[in-house]
Amino acid sequence: MPVTRLVDRGVIRVSGDDARDFLDNIVTNAMETVTPERAGYGGLLTPQGKIIGDFLVVAVPDAEGGGFLLDTPLLQIPDLMKKLKLYKLRAKVALDDLSERATVIAATDGGRLPADAGLVYADPRLPELGERAIVDLDGADELVDASMDDYHARRIGLGIPDGGRDFLYGDTFPHEALFDQLGGVSFRKGCYIGQEVVSRMQHRGTARSRVVPVVFSEGLNPDDGVEASAGGKTLGRVGSCADGRGLALLRLDRVADALAAGHEMDAGGLAFTLAPKPSFIRFPYPGEPEFGAAA
Q: Is the pLDDT score of 295 beyond 50?
């Protein structure tokens, strides 16, 4: 079974008597659903509803010290730690960056990891992503036999956005990054930072931009981050790519207009089309009869 070490991921530990309530009051997902048997996916937002950081939340069994581990992009940890400390106030919570001691591995083929690989958990975003584990940094490479390129090619093929690659922190709403499709936001829990904006977008259907999978001509890849356009209008930007497929944050209404007008969509000199709609996506796609302003 191929295993990848996700060298671009780090680990934050949130522990203490108030750890669960502390996180539940500030993050987008409902912490009541996070148990040692079930990880969660969520994020921390600005008051304006933009994503500061996103993470998988893993409950640590009491026998191993309790609390929670946040599996999150390594480069985003300084900003995330700064915000978590800001919101800590008098809560009985300890915050620790474990990235110099721990790392994240993943089953590259979407399968299962050995039970003794470390703190093992199923990726909560999509079953096809398989299992991950937080392991000691020392010795982690002994578990690894696949590359980051292998992991990201599978992720891209499944249509799963990656923060910092497929959407920009500080400039993206949760709906745009598919939080609402991947279980990353609760619409039933109480208030959290940015909740009003997220709730308004949900109920008014005002998320016009979305990360969607695309296919490029001739199986080639444009440079990450290039502008996508059609008919002289900007559609958005391309994120990560592999094997002629990619993820792009696009204005879907403009994509629909381009399709209706017969304009070719282009990114970095390469023509592209929308890939088939992933099964986990529930919002209407351009070209579908139900597509409209609520998309």
A: no
